[in-house]
Batch of 4 targets.
Target 1
Amino acid sequence: MELTRLKRQRASDEVYLALREGVLTQVFRPGERLNVDDIAEKLGVSLTPVRHAIQQLAVEGLIEIQPRSGTYVARLSARDVEETCEIRCALECQAAEAALARFSEADLALFDDLLRRMDRPVTRQRERTEHELDNLRFHRLIVERSENRRLAEMYESLNAHLQIARLHRHSDDWAARTATESAEHREIVEAIRAGDSERLRLSLRRHILRGGKSLTAGLPE
């Protein structure tokens, strides 16, 4: 386990961000038991900010606190992922409707650039990571242009849950997946460019729910 030592002793926010990043980047694996003393020592902080951070992450559903057993990185079931995707779908469709009149030519150019980047072949882990980040940027741009701060906060929390689900996915047919995603992403951008809210809502919903089904493959019920 590699964690970067923090400079300040009283650093609750930094501890929270460090642990959250550790969960989402597989420093801590799904189901792994967390040792609070060990984490505090590696980060160079007292136990108090670590415990506070763990409580925050437990509220988000990224960490599970099991009485008389310990603290663990959350594992998600297929039902967890399905429910999360349904909520994410509702939020992003609402964001897209609010954002439709706000997209600029610069935004459309950014969408086109992201489409080109996500069309690149994915054969190595580094390429997989870059693809996932570009996909996240694509959807975040839609949510950001809604200019709804509370919606964006809820959306980010849901994305953290889905990130954990992606960690469970040990294998994937990337050639087939990127081809399907590419077609869906282009349909979304075409709907934005046309200013067609109904087409945008339907294409987003189809894309998000289809992606959710692929995430549930191999997960326990």
Target 2
Amino acid sequence: MWKWRVAVMTGLGLLIALSAAGLLRTEASQPDVCDPDGKAANLDFVLKDMNGKNVSLSAYRGKVILLDFWATWCAPCRIEIPNFVELYKKYQSQGFVVLGVSVDDPLPKLKSFAKELKMNYPVLIGLDRDDVKDAFGPPPGYPTSFIIGRDGRICSQHTGFVPKEEFERKIKALL
């Protein structure tokens, strides 16, 4: 009987700790995907993509945007990017786009990395573009991703690794 009580108490303690840390989530406890009073995303920037073409962020207004600030040296970025490749492939036809902003990598390294990870979405050069980073925060760490709704509002911000399922749930709700 005593061992059973210890097991139950340990289990309850673990649930409380996970909940307090925000690691245990249920759909019922999730807030709306996009805050109606959310901040408008500043999409008034033109960046070069890794092929040298100008890309206007404002051209993506009206789409659901996952704007990801990342770097080749960032281990969580390396883990997340294949998930973004899958999500882009799956939802692109429904008005979803991933925009990857490489924050500090030289072009040769960036191209090699993008090829290795089979990045199928626009990869933009954020090197020396503190104006773009500052418009969104600046990012407190990497990766930092923003989900922007069709109306141009920032619906959520994530820093560090986030499971694909969490991004997908939010994206699907906005599409």
Target 3
Amino acid sequence: MPDTNNPSDATAVLAVRNLTKIYANGSERLTVLDDVTFSIQPTETCAIVGPSGSGKTTLLGLCAGLDRETSGSVAIDGVDLRPLNEDARARLRNERTGFVFQSFHLLPNLTAIENVMLPLELHGRTNVQSAARELLDRVGLGDRTDHYPSQLSGGEQQRVAIARSFINQPRVLFADEPTGNLDNETAKHVIDLVFALNREHQTALVLVTHDLDLASRTGRVLRLKKGKLIEDQRMTAGQ
């Protein structure tokens, strides 16, 4: 990985090949993902859609190196995840990916700016406060930098999470139902921010969503059904 005979793999920020995930429970085996293959190019935006139980979140977790596949392979920015131990996977995620989740995942004992700075501090960087403050300004929270998550609304917490996801200049941003806990108006504002920052930072976006209107804003839609990739649709309009 990547497959040098496949030009799309050679330039891909995310290359997924024959990815399969099987869970075993005693003598029973449940195939959650079944031989899924695709690749994502730099700056490409992609939505993963499908009914509940189709394998969307499992696929995203495998792509991000949060779980291990039963067979097949995933490469992020040309780095094959298979031989990496958990520490190496964590370093790769911290250096080259960003995450936005439905439930925000902010640390409650850190302020907004401390939450945003955290990925760079974990990477050993110092003097990162100005970069974090700039991102919080960009998402409209320049006056909330010293507030704790409990002092912020759901939409504000998600905007902090978005700022945090871009602090390390990721090559690919993974988003799992990022508006699932937000009202419609707040959700639209949050998604507009994600797409705007994605363009500004030239980041690829892989988005899991039930919202087909949101999916239609991306440049490509991957449709899963019962763990299989049944459709790979290029959108003409994109964002």
Target 4
Amino acid sequence: MAILYKGAGGGAYWHTNDACATGFAPMKTSAPFGVDRLMRHVAKGYFNSPYVSLTHSFGVAFSYALFGKGRLTNKVAAYVYEMEVGGRVSTRASVANPVKEVAEAAPAPTAAINYQHDGDPDFILGVANPNTMWRRV
């Protein structure tokens, strides 16, 4: 069994759509799967995709809940969902590691097109330190 987390900041999709009541279902279940769509989901935070992002890190989920796109107020709290995943996963869902999926789809280093990053060079600063570098994402 693995423990996975999902952060939900104020007003964010998973803040307004209670996964405890409905489960985690992607916003766009009919969208096609693919490495390009997976990279856009992870890198740009696209929610209109067939994916739901989860993490093994409580700290990462907590940070998304506090510093994500949703705004917190005295009346709007942040949440961190914790779920235990293992054994048989629903036939309608699967669990994948995006790093592994992208790496397996990457062309050889000598291929004519071999670089997958399409953001500005400071993007990783926003991912690594969203509290102070959020403008970079």
